[in-house]
Known about the structure:
Elements: H1 2-55, H2 58-63, E1 65-73, E2 80-81, H3 85-95, E3 100-109, E4 112-122, E5 136-148, E6 151-159, H4 161-167
Parallel strand pairs: 1-6
Antiparallel strand pairs: 1-2, 3-4, 4-5, 5-6
Amino acid sequence: MKKYLCAGPLVLLLCLSFACQDKAAVAELEKLKAKETSELKNEVLFRQFHEALDSQDIGRFISFLAPGAVCHGAGPQEDLTAENAAQLLQPFFKAFPDLTHTIEDIYSNGDKVVARILIQGTHKAELMGIPPTGNRVRYYQVSMAQIVDGKIKEGWRITDSLGMMQQLGMELRPKEVKK
């Protein structure tokens, strides 16, 4: 009988410890599910943001940006803000009226989303002094955004602008050295 009295509390202790582990495991699982749901929502928002670019609707495009949002490019080009979006995007939309952004790969982690985007369009109007060529261009951009409370707070992009310009017939030559 003594054996059972000693074993009883041990069995109860083991049951309680497994029950506590299950609660911790369930809590961790719920936390992971919430993170996954949030990341998927961010990916959907990022896709919708690029669809707004395809529709060339500046108002819709701006609606995805948080107040004070900025998108940084690589190199010396100007950052894109809600305030200067129309000024920077309109000439591009005019030059490529059939512009499309196709997200080929997308990844998210926490509040950041990263995508590899295929950009295509037909050059039908002047762009940066280049007369319309009728050429269909195809180039890539890698874009990352920080999404906070359902809005893009900050973004970064690296675009194959050289590839695009070469498809428009432009050449890259070294500067002439003055002697």
